[in-house]
Amino acid sequence: MADALETSQTYILDANKRDMSGARSKGLTDAMLDRLMLDAKRLRGVADAVRAVAALDDPVGSEIARWTVPSGLDIARVRTPLGVIGIIYESRPNVTADAAALCLRSGNAAILRAGSESLQSALAIATALRSGLEGAGLPADAIQLVDTPDREAVGHMLSGLDGKVDVIVPRGGKGLVARVQQDARIPVIGHLEGLCHAYVDADADPEKAVNIVLNAKMRRTGICGALETLLVNESVASNLLPAIAAPLRDAGCELRGDEAARAILPDMVPATEEDWRTEYLAPILSIRIVDDLDDALHHIATFGTGHTELVITENNSTAERFLMDVDAGIVLHNASTQFADGGEFGMGAEIGIATGRIHARGPVGAEQLTIFKYVVRGTGQTRP
Amino acid sequence: MADALETSQTYILDANKRDMSGARSKGLTDAMLDRLMLDAKRLRGVADAVRAVAALDDPVGSEIARWTVPSGLDIARVRTPLGVIGIIYESRPNVTADAAALCLRSGNAAILRAGSESLQSALAIATALRSGLEGAGLPADAIQLVDTPDREAVGHMLSGLDGKVDVIVPRGGKGLVARVQQDARIPVIGHLEGLCHAYVDADADPEKAVNIVLNAKMRRTGICGALETLLVNESVASNLLPAIAAPLRDAGCELRGDEAARAILPDMVPATEEDWRTEYLAPILSIRIVDDLDDALHHIATFGTGHTELVITENNSTAERFLMDVDAGIVLHNASTQFADGGEFGMGAEIGIATGRIHARGPVGAEQLTIFKYVVRGTGQTRP
């Protein structure tokens, strides 16, 4: 598949040019055009990502557990593919290859539905991937792309096509994911929002707090693991908040504070209730002063979206309580929320970060695109 | 909870009498009345089952895996509760206690919806369970029972109550489960059908084949793990089929065969296409002669429901191919399909056997009623 992407370079880049000119005439923003654009270097990156997935261990057939029961039966829980995975995504053309490769690595078939702006690129990439499959002696139909921009096609996928699609993975903005979660009649693995919090505890190391908050907010502001709300213990706020705020402001971050935070830094924008509910995906940080750990836990339980939550403290019992009590896919102690990523977790690649409660949470890699069966080996046992 | 069930005996048995008299006036069959009926002995059994669940290990907080990544982060995948589990079931009053106990054991809250025939018994049992929770210093609302037979309540549960219910577990007949799977807007863990097959291979041990098939079909015919279709390799059919058939007939089993099977045992009822699709849950067995393993695999792939599938052979490579290639929650080698049960698997208790492809397959015990989160412990890491 990776080789076929590279040998199809002219074909894929031509298709991408058609998408780009269509997108320009629709008046897409420069940022959107940049996401859509492919060139030789980016396409090599797409192929290399497929090679990285190919290098992952095959999860299918691996034993998760094995035990013997008193009847003498030898029972193993063994990983199997999920089946047919429907993936609905927006404009980045690389998703076509990434998602298809990850599904194939875990033994699944993929039905891909690209955004209309990137449909020509996606079709060209899918054609290359399918020829790569055939060249490897595998069925091309393990990867299928919906070849129409017709929105009805999404409805059909979300209905499960009479049991033929086992799970839907939406990849894109909140609007897309919310629609998929609303309309799907089959299970959805996806993330709706990453409204991530950091709680700076009374026992936080000041230097760690400054560095981690800056990185969590500003390394990349548009990713789902970016920090959106900072909670600072009131006992250290007057000392720590100015030190945390200065490099954020230097980096161009707008700070919005509650009344107590603004008592310390009066030139902050006042934060409203709406701020606690907002995933900015932008250089904006809302800041609230909290009474203690319980107050922080309560704020996170109220406004968190189950994505990634962070505690900064040198007090291990505070840290452990936060890690156990906070209900989110990823809970962190003294490390940036920007580590919320399958690659950083050692999974090699991810199809997204799940914020639901069923099947998988956090980064969804090849292993999480499997289910299991029980393999039971007997020697003639009948049940009394 | 178990103690409270026993101290509430009079109250619960009185409520059950009201259900029984209502059921009699509705003209329920004796079998249905027997399923609904509680007496002191049965109630002790219900309490003992709750004690058995209480004795299980607590899955919440246990580490499924733990590793360190190059950035130095220590990452653990830790079990957490699923959240709020909605359970929709039919007439057996013991399900109220079994399901509530299993949900509580795995840290979940349960919203229970009993069948209208058993509503008074279920209400009395739920009241006892809730008082038991309070006595143990736990919130009574961890177990809630819908106190109306109004069918709209089911619709509300299936909608997820605005995100307040995380998963639905239907327990009951095919009609109930199909309705739940059709209408639910949230994930469903359940089993629709157990159309279980046994494939008797050319290398089957005759004695094992005779004993296992008899047990798989006739030990209890009404359970989801009961055998429904027998596939016999044509090279051994003329020898083996009569030996397998005799004890089945002695036990009162009706045999329905395809043409090739009837060429060996002409007095069988002819099997039609409909038989291959039927979960009898009765002393009836459909029998087909197959050419070879591939033919058996094809039949199972066509008609199987993903519940439990069995191969009987002394040839290990045949067995391993069957175990790997058959796509079902449970695949067995040389042991009765009636072992398809959480208790027999060493899980202590089960809320059912899942035939879906998401989250869990096979027996669903306390561990399968959990999900996980990633607990990440750092020392100040920021992401480059």
UniProtKB/TrEMBL annotation, chains A, B:
Domain Aldehyde dehydrogenase: start-end pairs: 46-247, 268-346
Main location: cytoplasm
Keyword Cell membrane in record: no
Listed EC numbers: 1.2.1.41
Catalytic activity of the protein: L-glutamate 5-semialdehyde + phosphate + NADP(+) = L-glutamyl 5-phosphate + NADPH + H(+)
Location of this chain's protein in the cell: Cytoplasm
InterPro entries: Ald_DH/histidinol_DH, Ald_DH_C, Ald_DH_N, Aldehyde_DH_dom, G-glutamylP_reductase_CS, Glu-5-SA_DH, GPR_dom
Domain of life: Bacteria
Full protein name: Gamma-glutamyl phosphate reductase
Annotated source species: Henriciella pelagia
Gene expressing this chain: proA
